[in-house]
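Can't paste images in this forum, so I'm doing it all in text. The chain is below; anyone willing to post the predicted structure tokens underneath?
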Amino acid sequence: MLIWSGLLAREYEKELEVFIPLTGPVEKNRWLLFLSAIIPLCLTGLAYYLHGPQYHIILSVFLVSSFLVQFSLTDFLWQVIFNKELALFALLGASRLLITGGEISDCLMASVVGVLAFFLLAVITRGGFGGGDVKLIGAMGLWLGSDLLLTTVIMGIILGGLVALLLIITKKRSRKEFFPYGPYFAITGMILFVLCIN
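Text version of the structure:
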């Protein structure tokens, strides 16, 4: 996943504004490799501990955490969540619903309402939320459903807002600078998904 993100970043290198500069290819950065591997493995282990040997749950947690970690990293590194990765994440979420017989109507409603609500927020806030955030919420809706997605959005906005406020107070960022909210939705969504999946 991380190597794929690095390749996508190189494809769009001229269009990306780098937030955290990298000194070499992303796949050679040991810290990024460590984070992208250890977090999904830890959350998968936690899912096994909480839910027992239910392999469809373990696989779902591994996939969700792997993708959401990637989205967090790319949003921090390059201020973008790549469409190709989001499309695959959404496709896997829809496939899971069809295979497991999950609450298809609820998840579809969460996805559609999430996209519409965040599109309006993006317009109202004039870039406070980006297109990547809109698509991320839509894709997450297919995995989380309406209740968990609503909780994720509320907690993600609060957490992201607190971090943004802290950065402004400490003068590490100005109010006009871009602030990535995607990682805070991803972190909240990962935790809720592990705890509440059934």
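The two ends are 26 Å apart (CA to CA). The CA atoms of residues 114 and 191 lie 19 Å apart.
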